[in-house]
Amino acid sequence: METTRRGLFRLLGGGSMLASMAGAANLRTGPGPRLFFGAEELPRLKKLFAEDERFAPLRHELIGRDREAERAFLRGDINFNDQLKNLMRVGSSAEEMAWVYLMTGDDDAADLAIECARTMMKFPLWDFFADEHRRAVGVQRAPSSAISMACAIDWLGDKVADDERAAWLVAIAVRGCEPCYRGLDSIRYPRKNLGWDFNPDSDVYAERKFFPTDLARRAEITQDTNLRAAPAGGLAVGAAVIALYGGPKADLERWLELAVHSLKAFERIYLPDGSYGEGIHYANYTSESILVGVEALRKSGLMPIEVDVDWVGHMQFMLNMSMATAENPYEVVNIGDNGQRRDPEKFQHPNGKPETRTAVPYWVAREFRDGSAQWFAKNLGASHDIWALIFCDDSVSEIAPKSGAQTWFPEVDWVVARTGFTADDLVVSLRSGNGYNHEHADRNSIIVKCFGEQLIVDPLRPPYWFRDPAWILRETAGHSAVLIGGKGQFHNNGVEGTNATRAQARLRDKGEGAGYSYSISDATQAYRIEDYHTRKVIRATVVLFDVPAVIVVDCVSRWNTPAEVEARFFGDNFDGACELAASDSGFTIKRPTAKAEAQLYCREAIEVESALLPIPEERGVKNPFVAVKMKPTMATTLVTVIGLGRPEDAAPKVSFESDASRITVSLRHRGKSAACWIDDQAEVPGIKVQLG
Fold this sequence. Notes:
Layout lengths: L4 H7 L5 H7 L18 H10 L4 H8 L3 H9 L7 H22 L2 H14 L8 E2 L5 E2 L3 H16 L5 H27 L8 E2 L4 H6 L9 H4 L4 H20 L6 H13 L15 H21 L10 H10 L38 H10 L2 H9 L6 H6 L14 E3 L5 E5 L8 E5 L14 E5 L2 E4 L25 E3 L21 E8 L2 E7 L1 H5 L5 E11 L4 E10 L4 E8 L8 E4 L3 E6 L2 E9 L3 E6 L5 H4 L4 E9 L1 E11 L7 E6 L3 E8 L2 E8 L6 E6 L1
Antiparallel strand pairs: 1-2, 1-3, 4-5, 5-6, 6-7, 7-8, 9-14, 10-11, 11-12, 12-13, 13-20, 14-19, 15-16, 16-17, 17-20, 18-19, 21-22, 22-23, 23-24
């Protein structure tokens, strides 16, 4: 339900909002921090920061920061028109050094935080987007800068003189809150403006004018994405710090109304079970942006807001999208643009900071006494940041997830079957479902991980720039999926960015039994809007947990013109340690500690070859693939039986029998046996499994 100003007044008890806040004495007062926690919580936070081994890396990184290098940067060739990198660095340092002062009383850290905040004041713009009137629009940098400045104000306390604090509050209002409001208002009412563009007054404009993305619909596209959460959270924090510390309040009412409306808009964006369609990394960014805003409104006393998302279910989404490997214990099922870049530094953000997904689970654990979230934060959430420490509540006992064969069928329709959550465990993903921001043309694609290795993959981190030859990594041709007549599914041409399409797949059937599960996904629509001659494109995956093995069944048919059908299976060769081999009837994908050996069956003749995408070789060699090709046909069924094992294991023994309507697969591997019957039915194949 939309939060109107009148409704907001009712929520706050009627009358003038500011009068309601002051009259009810809801705003936190007294010495010490007031924005995200009060002075009474400082002993607990200081103890965690000083003594808890979980936060030792954070403590060492912040206290050990090269402050002289940071001061040299602030006093050197800093570019005050570079909001993308320079402002982000300065704002982060202001926030982090203010935190060090609050935790340790280090006056030098406070001095550096103040110098950083003063340097932020020299940036005329806190974001690099603008509306049609060339007014600043806050998307990411304005909200993050407002939050950093707010933290500096709250955590430095009396270290900042009253007149300087007042100037900082004005900057938050003018360069943070108002641009965030402007952006959120255009997201709320996208038809009343002519879109956004890069601000000509920012150096980012010059850097990106050769990156011809059309931003005319950006506000509309942003309605259901993480880039709505960031300014919503920033606006909430900005409004709260201004209310607490006496900043300019003339626009506070409308800022707060829109912040609340925008935060609560995500109640319809998350799926009912807590899944989030942009994937795990964007889910974490979205959720953290929301929760930081919510915490500021609550803890400041400004207003008691709830964002009605299934947060416990959201943690199950994060848990089930995890995929630990021997190389990276924090790896994820990287559907869409998710997954950390693997170079130049392992598992590092481009800004050099370590990957972190722990603040949100610690918040969920604290709010809902959720032991599973507590366990995730400690074991699979990677490194801890300041927000994780603030939200951490050690009175919540950890509950480890169950091990053993299990299949997760979320409402987002990204099926994940697994045997557990360790690096050696089996994980098999089948990507069904609808389109979301940061999506790829990847319906019916699969990912397989076992014995510590990613064996069949979704190639990692394709470019955002549609003119880059590696854009093909976003298309079906760059996924472990099917091509028909050389074509894949409908996908964006990239002019408007990496936003969602109308390409869809849906689960048509699923089943589980002792030692197995299967899922059947229909991606016909996604292919048909690209090539209307397509009649049916269905993929079934049968996961045999104990064998272990995966059976992939691809059923393709055409309306009136035959076409070549090709199934691709990509390997992970970022480290140069992946070996692909093709034979007349199968293929092998081998990594240092695991391998996938596949046997193929089709009623038509097939050709199997290993290949690289037609992109620059230095990128193409990182994800070689096996192509299984059939000559032009009106209808075909391809069965790929993939045995998984250690490099020294014997190849699986596979046999096939078939008649006009049924294919029978018999499999023996690693001392286990199984049979699978596949009925070639008109619409959806029938699947039956028996384990021996």
